[in-house]
Write a structure and sequence with these properties.
Layout lengths: L7 H40 L3 H11 L2 E6 L4 E9 L3 E6 L5 E5 L3 E5 L2 H6 L10 H4 L3 H10 L3 E6 L4 E9 L3 E6 L13 E6 L3 E6 L5
Antiparallel strand pairs: 1-2, 1-5, 2-3, 3-4, 4-10, 6-7, 6-10, 7-8, 8-9
Length: about 210
């Protein structure tokens, strides 16, 4: 029995289609595998992302955020500085600085685009010195400058005074009325205040 062969042209077209189909399938598989690897790599990168890094991005972008604190206080602010364990923010109604320990922050609300921008793998300016600035370091500097401040405590009390000195985990606060200098006759009381008891502190007319 004689087998009729296909024409060379038709034979070549069929083989070309076969290989095009195989190449298409292989390309699709490669792209799918690369997408899986990229997604896993992105998940691992985000898993290592610290809150401080995202706060620094909000600072860099000067994004308006809704800052919510553990005592229920809510403020619309822009972050102006990020220390090791604190932030300094500027409120819309004040030229001063609101100092907030990071442990006092319960959440941060902002535009979706600004939130997504904090996830980007962008190069931020080096701030090795500020990374070592703890809340204690900041409070000791305010004590050195004799800067009066309003302090909100975790039990809901609000006091005003000047830091006389700051230790490793607490400060000595001389309480006096707002607008008065820290003079002996103006001081009504002295307090030892643990850093852990501070919800926030507001410094009027001073940029941190």
């Amino acid at each position: 029995m004689r087998v009729q062969s296909l024409s060379p042209t038709l034979d070549r077209v069929q083989w070309d289609r076969l290989f095009e189909d195989l190449e298409g399938q292989l390309t699709a598989e490669w792209e799918a595998e690369r997408a899986v690897l990229d997604a896993e790599s992105e998940r691992l990168r985000i898993a290592k992302l610290a809150l401080r890094t995202r706060l620094r991005r909000l600072e860099q972008d000067s994004a308006l955020i809704g800052l919510r604190l553990a005592d229920g206080d809510r403020r619309s602010v822009r972050i102006r500085a990020v220390g090791m364990d604190w932030i300094a923010a500027q409120t819309a109604d004040s030229s001063g600085a609101l100092i907030v320990p990071m442990v006092s922050i319960t959440s941060i609300e902002t535009a979706h685009g600004a939130l997504l921008a904090t996830l980007e793998d962008a190069l931020l300016p080096a701030d090795e010195l500020r990374e070592r600035m703890t809340l204690g370091f900041l409070m000791r500097d305010l004590a050195r400058r004799r800067t009066p401040l309003h302090v909100a405590l975790r039990d809901g009390e609000r006091v005003h005074g000047t830091i006389d000195r700051a230790g490793a985990d607490h400060l000595d606060l001389a309480i006096h009325d707002s607008g008065q200098a820290r003079r002996a006759e103006a001081v009504r009381a002295f307090r030892l205040v643990p850093f852990a008891a501070i919800m926030s502190a507001r410094v009027d007319g001073t940029v941190i």
